[in-house]
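call fold(seq) -> tokens
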Amino acid sequence: MSSFKRYQEPFLLKNLRIILGEKQRITKGHLISKALIHQEGGVCYEINPLLYYFLKENQFQPLKVQRQVKPMSLFF
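ret:
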């Protein structure tokens, strides 16, 4: 099993809170509570910062990068 698969498996993507319109600030405490304590999945903008904090606390030097997904063009 690949390292990514082992990382991804416990954090299945769940969008129910988004569909219900529930909003939460993305803080370290919220992420730990949601994913690790309550064992809820998340979306990429929740799981990626959690991995960032984990790496930082384990002496790695992760970088925060912001990206935006744009709709595909009809013209390739």
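The chain has a mean pLDDT of 77.
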